[in-house]
Specification:
The protein is an all-alpha fold and 211 residues long. The protein is 77% helix and 0% strand. The protein has a single domain, classed as Up-down Bundle (Four Helix Bundle (Hemerythrin (Met), subunit A)), CATH 1.20.120.
């Protein structure tokens, strides 16, 4: 299989996730800002690869599959790293926040495993489980939420003291917005997962029809 530009952009999200996580735990100035910037670039790439594939008539089954998979790797990988980040670097006073965030991440993980497992069972019976609008919306909200959460350490660690305004208040606001959006994203994640399971529950029945 020959890789095209949209597929290369799609696959780039996997190594980008590892770089972002590494930067999150670096202590040098600018690391947090770089992590935020790379995540935003990866999120834009989620739109760009699909746009280029459609524009250049390069839509393939591999591209569709990897686009959905790399989205999950980017978002869930960064979410897990954020739990570790808050736990290690901002624990103590934020223990309750860490536990709350962990619960949201675990709910997201459970949904993704359930839907992915259902897709595998459906595929074995010849049933195609197409991506739905609710799933795409939850991915967008997840990307925006994580972007806001990553912006807080960027402001605190890299920009506090260098700008003529007191930036701590703004960084706290960014964090609150990110957490609020993450709650919304988790609700959308659970809701869309439940819709998938209800809509395609017949694939779990013995003798379910193909197609």
């Amino acid at each position: 299989m020959k890789l095209n530009l949209p597929n290369i952009i799609t696959l780039s999200r996997i190594p980008l996730m590892f770089v972002i996580v590494w930067l999150m735990f670096c202590n040098w100035r600018g690391a947090a800002t770089a992590a935020f910037a790379l995540f935003v670039i990866a999120a834009i790439g989620d739109w760009l690869d699909g746009y280029l594939a459609r524009r250049q008539n390069l839509v393939t089954n591999f591209g569709k599959f990897m686009d959905a998979l790399t989205d999950k790797i980017l978002v869930i990988g960064t979410m897990v790293a954020l739990v570790a980040y808050f736990g290690i670097k901002q624990g103590g006073n934020r223990t309750a926040l860490v536990i709350f965030f962990l619960v949201l991440v675990l709910l997201t993980l459970c949904r993704e495993f359930l839907v992915s497992g259902m897709r595998m069972v459906a595929a074995s019976k010849g049933v195609v489980v197409a991506a739905e609008r609710s799933g795409k919306i939850k991915t967008i909200v997840q990307l925006v939420a994580v972007s806001f959460i990553l912006l807080e350490p960027a402001l605190e660690n890299d920009w506090a003291g260098t700008l003529p305004v007191h930036i701590s208040a703004y960084s706290d606001i960014m964090n609150l917005i990110g957490l609020a959006l993450f709650v919304v994203a988790t609700a959308l994640t659970v809701s869309s997962g439940a819709n998938y399971m209800l809509k395609y529950r017949r694939v779990f029945e013995e003798g379910a029809l193909k197609g």
